[in-house]
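Bumping with the actual sequence this time:
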Amino acid sequence: MKKLEGVGLGLRREMLSELGDKLPKDVDFWEVAPENWIPLGGKYQKTLSKFTKVNQFVAHGLSLSIGSPDPLDVNFVKEVKTFLDEHNILYYSDHLSYCSGKGHMYDLMPIPFTEEAIHQVSERVKMVQDIIERPLVLENVSYYAAPGQELTELEFTQGVLNESGCLLLLDVNNVYVNSINHKYDAVEFLKGMPTNRIVYGHIAGHYNEAEDLIVDTHGADVIEPVWKLLEAAYEIHGAFPTLLERDFNIPPIADLLTEVERIRNIQRNFVSEAKRSA
């Protein structure tokens, strides 16, 4: 499996009728949520298998619940491992959050920013990695409350990365959303992320609930301040592979490819500037 490069796009089942039998070559890699495909058979599995044989895919999960107080769902992780093997997928990521506690919550809940939580999450990361036989990639998440907070989001994220040894999916939109909602410097947060742990990044749209409250929806176009923050992220970490997320209000593929191309142009401009400065 070759290293990720370039620009990615999240593949949603709603796109299949428009995509047909082939995926656009404008996209370098694709992302799927295992939970949305594991239960399916028939034409869906045949279509996905056809795509994964000739295109590079990553898996971005929804249900790992890495910070849950409940025991790790080992059977689920084993199902994910089988899915990754069947489709030759190296990178499996999920959210630095939890979504279960005496039952499934159907939402991504914030892990308390504490030293105890760092230790608990890190132990669970190691358990997951032993099962999937791959590095686990964790995404920095948007959050709207911080119960039991003892550390900053930056300190907590750094702590998990350092103690667990996991890799990072750097979601630039989540950094922007949190910087508005919790009033911190987004660029300083980006500077605190370890460059050598970044596998790829996410960029997406969101919803402005109020001047000081943004909801991370993945249901709109990327806004200009987030594009600028992506440029800042490249200045800090280099032009890492970056994927466009769109989970609902999905427009025609041509519109999504326009945003994909904008990511690529930002990457190209950064590389050109870096060469001129060398």
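The tokens above came from a reply further down the thread. The chain has a mean pLDDT of 90.
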